[in-house]
Every structure is written in C-alpha cells, then in structure tokens.
Amino acid sequence: MRVGLGFDVHRFKAGRPLMLGGIEIPFEVGLDGHSDADVLLHAVMDALLGAASLGDIGDHFPDTDEQYLGASSVALLRSVVDLIHERNYRVGNLDVMVLAEQPKLAPYKKDMIHLLARELAVDEMDVSIKATTMERMGFVGRKEGIAVEAIVLLIDSAKER
C-alpha cells in the first residue's frame, strides 16, 4: 500500500466558470488557472501521482504547454489514472478536504463523489469529500480563492494475486 498527499490552491477570477470536482458550480466567479482550474481534481491528481512516486501535475501537464490551456481536469485525471493502472496500482480510498468560505458545496458533493468514484473505479463509499471554512482567516477567509487537500491510498494490484 502507498499513501499520497495532494494540495492545490487557486484564486478566484471573474469571467470563468467555477469547476470543482468535475462539476460546474453556479457561482459569480471561477478559479484562475491554465486549465479549467479545478482545484479539487488538481489536489487529487497530485495525491495519486505522489503515492505512485510519479512527481506532480506540473511535471505531467505544465502550464507552459499550450495543449493544456483550458484543458478539462477530468480528462487530465483520466491520464493520471491510466498512469497509476500502468504501475499496477488501484485506488483503495480517497479523502478530500475543501477549504472555502464560499460557495457552499453541500448541494454538489454527491455529484462530485459520483464522478470521482467513476473515474477512479471505486465504490462511492471509498470517496469522501468534506468542506470547511477558514473562519474568515487568511486568503480563503478573505474569499480570495479556494484550497484543497487530498489523501489517497493506493493498493498494489500485482501483490493481491
């Protein structure tokens, strides 16, 4: 078994859709980034890559590469999952913590969990998404952006046989 930790942060930016966990969230601003800036999926990808000792998303999808401009983070996640499977790992479980003053994520968590479970080929019970505020402290508390932490357990499929 291997454990990976991911963290990402993006600032809010007007004129962009807000993508979180592969879901478009109705909100007055989106997040700034080279791809679709899905901070939740970026943290998950970094956790997966870290657990498999494959670097980070910047190594695989650099923001200097125009082919990733506006890219769907769901598509990038699929590429990461393929890399994980190529190394004979499968996801055991995923735990995600979203740090955001706004928007409220409760109405969208079920859809995010469904999408992540499908993309990671796990049961929905193996995916946890939680959200908290920063009690108005720091850049998240000032409503300047969103931060996400993710931790994942990978299981070596070759050793299960």
UniProtKB/TrEMBL annotation:
It catalyses: 4-CDP-2-C-methyl-D-erythritol 2-phosphate = 2-C-methyl-D-erythritol 2,4-cyclic diphosphate + CMP. InterPro entries: MECDP_synthase (IPR003526), MECDP_synthase_CS (IPR020555), MECDP_synthase_sf (IPR036571). Residues 1-154 form the 2-C-methyl-D-erythritol 2,4-cyclodiphosphate synthase domain. Gene3D superfamilies: 2-C-methyl-D-erythritol 2,4-cyclodiphosphate synthase. Pathway: Isoprenoid biosynthesis; isopentenyl diphosphate biosynthesis via DXP pathway; isopentenyl diphosphate from 1-deoxy-D-xylulose 5-phosphate: step 4/6. Its cofactor is a divalent metal cation. A divalent metal cation binds at D8, H10, H42. It is an enzyme of class 4 (lyase). Transmembrane segments: none annotated. Keywords: Isoprene biosynthesis, Lyase, Metal-binding. SUPFAM superfamilies: IpsF-like (SSF69765). Involved in the biosynthesis of isopentenyl diphosphate (IPP) and dimethylallyl diphosphate (DMAPP), two major building blocks of isoprenoid compounds. Catalyzes the conversion of 4-diphosphocytidyl-2-C-methyl-D-erythritol 2-phosphate (CDP-ME2P) to 2-C-methyl-D-erythritol 2,4-cyclodiphosphate (ME-CPP) with a corresponding release of cytidine 5-monophosphate (CMP). This is 2-C-methyl-D-erythritol 2,4-cyclodiphosphate synthase.
